[in-house]
Amino acid sequence: METTTHDAEAGHRWLASALIDKGALTPEWVPAYDAVPRHLFVPDVIWPGRAGMNRPRRRVIRSEEPEAWWEAVHRDAPIATQWDDGTYTGPGKGRTPSCSNSMPTMVFTMLAALEPLDGERALEIGTGTGWNAALLSARLGSGNVVTVEVDEETAVDARQRLHAAGHTPTTVVGDGAEGYPPGAPYDRVIATCSAGRVPPAWLRQTRPGGVIVTPWGPTYGGEAVVRLAVAGDGSASGRFVGSSAFMRLRDQRRNLPPPDAFPGAPGEGERGTTALSPEEVGGWLHMFVIGVRVPDLFCRIERTGAGTYRLWLYDTGATSRAVIGYDEPAAGYPIVQYGPRRLWDELEGAWR
Ligand SMILES: C[S@@+](CC[C@H](N)C(=O)[O-])C[C@H]1O[C@@H](n2cnc3c(N)ncnc32)[C@H](O)[C@@H]1O
To answer: Which of 149, 154, 161, 223 to mutate to test the pocket of ligand 1 (most atoms within 8 A of CB)?
Structure first.
C-alpha cells in the first residue's frame, strides 16, 4: 500500500491550469484530459525529465519514492520510461532514452494542431506509454483510433494500461513508418516520434484534406512539429507550429560516417578565421535553420578543456569536413576546412 501525502486530484487540477495558461490545453481537449489522468499511464519505474533538458538525471521507483513519482506525474515535463531500446536495465540510466511519457504541453499542443472532428479516424505512431492513444480514444472513441508501436514490450504494457483505463484502440506492434493499411484511410495521423523524412505511407493512408502532425528534424539538429494538409496527389504541405525534441523513428536514426571516413590529415586543409563564434550557432533554432539550409551537414563536439572545444562539421557523403576552435570570446576563431566543400562557409552562410 502506497503512503504519500501527494493529493492526486489537486495535482491533476494544477497541471490542467498550467496547461490552460500556456494555451496548450484547449477547451475541446479538457474532457479527454479529465477522463484520462496522466498517472494511469506512467510506469512505476521512471526517469523524470525537466522542461528544456533532454537528459533526465536519475531513476525514481514509485514504491520507494512515491512523493517524487507523483511530483513527476504532475510536472509539465517529459518522463523517460525506457533507455537504449530496453537493453539497459541497470539501476542508473542508459545512453539514450528510447521511450517516454511526453511533456504534457507538447502532447496537448500537438493534439490541438491535429484538430480532429467528432467521429474521425486517427492513426498514432509511437504508442509509448499509451497516454496519447487514450486521450485520442476519449475524444474520438476507441473504435476510431489505431496506434502503432515498434517495441513489443512497450506495446504490451501500453495495451494493458489502456484496457485498465477502459480504452480499446487497435494497438499494433510494428514499424510505424509503414502506417497501418488495414485501418486506412485516416482523417488524422499523429506521430509522437520524430522523422527526418515523412514516410510516404502516411500520405497514402491519409484521406485527401486530412492532416498529419509530426515532429520533423534535419540531420544537423533542432526539431519542430509540422502540421501538413494532405492533397491527395501524393503531396502534403503546411507549417511548423512549434519547436520539439522527440525520439527518432527507429529506422530513421542517424547513421553517420565516423570521423576517420573523412579526408584531411593534420597540416592539410585550408586555414582561416571567422568572427562568428561557435557559441552562436549551437542553439536549437539555429541548428534547425542551418540543418534546413544545408541538409547533409552534421557535427560533433570535441571537448578540449573546461569550457573549450572544437566544433567538427561533416557532410553525410563523407567528402569534406571542417573544424573551428572555441577557447574564449575573441575577435576571431580559427577554422580549417578539408575536402572540396567549405562546410564552415556553408554553415556561416546559412546562419547569416
Ligand atoms: C515519445 S515516445 C511516445 C509517447 C507516447 N505517445 C505516449 O503517449 O506515451 C516515442 C515512442 O515511439 C516509438 N517508436 C520509435 N520508432 C518507431 C517506429 N518506427 N514505429 C512505431 N513506434 C516507434 C518508441 O519505441 C517510443 O515508444
So the answer is: 149
**pTM, full prediction:** 0.94
What is the DSSP secondary structure assignment for residue 233, as one 8-state letter?
S
Residue for grid cell 569534406: 320
Pocket (CB within 6 angstroms of ligand 1): 98-102, 125-126, 128-129, 131-132, 148-151, 154, 175-177, 192-193, 246-247, 249-251
Q: How far is the CA of 73 from the centre of ligand 1 (A)?
A: 19
pLDDT in tens, 77-102: 999 999 999 999 888 889 899 999 99
Q: How far is the CA of 75 from the centre of ligand 1 (A)?
A: 21
Are β-strands 45-48 and 79-83 bridged in parallel, bridged antiparallel, or unpaired?
A: antiparallel
Query: How does 147-181 read in b/e, with b if 16+ C-beta sit within 10 Å?
Result: bbbbbeebbebbbebbeebebebbbbeebbbbbbe
Q: What percent of the chain shows pLDDT beyond 90?
A: 89
CA distances (Å), 187 to each of 18, 142, 148, 170, 265, in order? 30, 15, 16, 16, 54
